# Entry
Amino acid sequence: MDRREFLQAGVALGAIASRGASASPALQNSVQNDREYWVQSMLKIADPVLRSLSEGKLRERMPVEAPRGNLEERKRFTYLEAIGRLLAGMAPWLESNTGPEAVLRAHYAELSRSAIRSATDPGSPDFMNFNKGSQPVVDTAFLSLAIVRAPNELWHKLDRKTQQNVIAALQSSRVIRPGYSNWLLFSAMNEAALSLMGAWWDPMRIDYALRTMDTWYKGDGVYGDGPQFHFDYYNSFVIHPLLLNVLDVIGRSSNTWSSLKERTESRARRYAAIQERLIGPDATFPPTGRSLAYRFGAFHLLAEIALRRSLPEPIAPSQVRCALTAVMRKMLDAPGVFDQNGWLRIGFYGYQPSIAEPYISTGSSYLCSAVFLPLGLPATDPFWSGPPMPWTSKSIWSGEQVGLDHALAADLTVGAGEMTD
# Structure
């Protein structure tokens, strides 16, 4: 079976799973088509990266664009950006190894392990840069996040040598001093992953990141990116998802930060509710702030909360599915999203290199994959099996009755004496 046939067969198999025996034909088609579309879209984005890297040919094949004229500088980082960000979004799907998509998932899980092997093997032509310059701490952390989200498929099933190489790669990133911003969480994410791997981890890096982020909380589910508030999507790109995952993982090793967990989860749920309301009735959302080249990766946090089955009332899982599906369809249908060989190009809606900051290159774009987190839920979960529903903005602009929106009640930031031992 060639690659195209494999993809078609696997996606068709996954589509069968999402059919409800008692559902109407229209409902069956809607539910089936949404999940099938998500799987197809994810694999269309993933396939060039995973296939090339698993064969040790990512540097050879992946085109690199850096619109701000710093191509040689960004080539130092762009390959790790591509694999770390891609796997961070794919990981829950790879880890959910049951159901009719199992054959397809097993194939891509093996490609992913081979890709990690190539990326971390010092003898590989695709050995990544984990410690030169400042950028690698970011994408080492996204690789760590992927492993944390899929510990069975992306950690325990790695051969021993590759596990040693991964640990060495994460440890080597410690030479990088993160900026006084959301970057503190990247160092913390790497330490959390090392704790999961059974390696020595540095509690001070985690403690500093968690305490500092808590002092930057501004209210109503929103953190500052540093001491100041920035009107961008970094609360979703990085801050909330990494806070949640660091606390999850490190809680298995220590209860030192347990007092933060409840308030952190409450804040994340509130910000997810805000995100759901930001999606307009036409599936657009405000193009504000930096890093717009991450496209629908702007909904990393909403996807994370859906994956956790923790959406705040009255948001129904299926309305989030419908909203995110509409956003993806709108953005992926724009001309120029992919080049002729299937690689992502830079832009927000289509090909728009003018929106790229100096730190943006081809590999950066793969953070859009964060939206695919709910594929880690089984096809029978209400997120996938629930009937199509309008999202909040669509309901309001259709004249429907919608409940009030309330700010999150004020909470206190944690002081040094509040941590538990």
